Amino acid sequence: MVLVQIPMYNEREVYRLSIGAACGLSWPSDRLIVQVLDDSTDPTVKGLVELECKCWGNKGKIVKYEVRNNRKGYKAGALKEGMLRDYVQQCDYVAIFDADFQPEPDFLLRTIPYLVRNPQIGLVQAHWEFVNTNECLMTRIQKMTLHYHFKVEQEGGSSTFAFFGFNGTAGVWRISALEEAGGWKDRTTVEDMDLAVRAGLKGWKFVYVSDVKVKSELPSNLKTYRYQQHRWTCGAANLFRKVGAEILLTKEVPFWWKFYLLYSFFFVRKVVAHVVPFMLYCVVIPFSVLIPEVTVPVWGVVYVPTTITLLHAIRNTSSIHFIPFWILFENVMSFHRTKALFIGLLELGGVNEWVVTEKLGNGSNTKPVPQILERPPCRFWDRWTMSEILFSIFLFFCATYNLVYGDDYYFIYIYLQAIAYLVVGTGFCGTQSANS
């Protein structure tokens, strides 16, 4: 018996896609329960989602439409409350899909067998595939970053330690593993990673299946992407703060597993990976042209960055011509992520800020439902981010100083990075939506 959970929040553009894909899964109808967890605040959207659930129910599918009186705990709260329903007790496994995810009909047929055949496996994670990759340069860059995340971090963790961070969607959990880990908690904005860490500490193993792909949508406007990255970075850092001692003191897993989790998974990937690009390429190198006594070795400026770039390019040969843009954009975003990182580590204001990633239904075969009210056009000054603009001014100054007084060619890179900061700071990146 399989439960499929679909958490939603005002998902006007994609609710039909996700509900339709879940109800279209190849699994006996009497052994599949689709649970739509609707936290929508728009009564019109709630009515549309409920009507869609009833339509599939009339076709013989078991579809449960669940709503709450509040949004306590956001997505984690909705998933937790959904697991308390009486009919869930008869289910062995739960598949989770965000509202923009569209699994293929054979998704369960290709993932559930891993759980059935090996009682030690608690989670099977599928690969994300994107329907709007070619929408703009920003979505192409995101694909490159996420492809590296899945191929190296997820598949590497699965192959070596049978552990990786659950991505919160396109995965199937053994319900007994989820319950043994303590269920969903809303103490951070990365409830999926939190659950994975707690399940891993209980000895459960995870499997990443790269050939099972689930269609989804990438954020195509900058404001939405910034909110998403803030939530992912800040939440992971805050979780590190909360579970670091617990990981160190647990006796249920071997030392090397704890070392991998603390050093590689958290410290390197969730802390160092954000701070180093910003400090080296946006602070140390620009300041080195202003202070002649500071010299950056060639290996730090050329060899190491080139090696890292080539490692990314190997997995994205079709997008190798976007590598320069990827470098500049990721360096800019490292500034944003570093701020989010320290907010999470120090638990400053905004540590639990949760803004749902806007979905536009782009790249799908169905047209979005027309808006009842016309949205106001986006104003130019609403797109500005002053921190990035001020940083671009600083970089322009450093580049010009190097051009006039320096005896190297750092100004070429610094000028390009300054332009990237200015483009992002003024909002001329990605597509523009009505509320961006």
TrEMBL record:
Residues 93-289 form the Glycosyltransferase 2-like domain. The keyword Nuclease does not apply. It is a multi-pass membrane protein. It is an enzyme of class 2 (transferase). GO terms for biological process: cell wall organization. The chain crosses the membrane at residues 271-291, 297-314, 384-404, 410-430. It comes from the Eukaryota. Its EC number is 2.4.1.32. GO terms for cellular component: Golgi membrane. It is found in: Golgi apparatus membrane. It catalyses: GDP-mannose + (glucomannan)n = GDP + (glucomannan)n+1. Gene3D superfamilies: Spore Coat Polysaccharide Biosynthesis Protein SpsA, Chain A (3.90.550.10). CDD domains: CESA_CaSu_A2. One of its GO terms (molecular function) is mannan synthase activity. Keywords: Cell wall biogenesis/degradation, Glycosyltransferase, Golgi apparatus, Membrane, Transferase, Transmembrane, Transmembrane helix. Belongs to the glycosyltransferase 2 family. Plant cellulose synthase-like A subfamily. This is glucomannan 4-beta-mannosyltransferase. It comes from Oryza brachyantha.
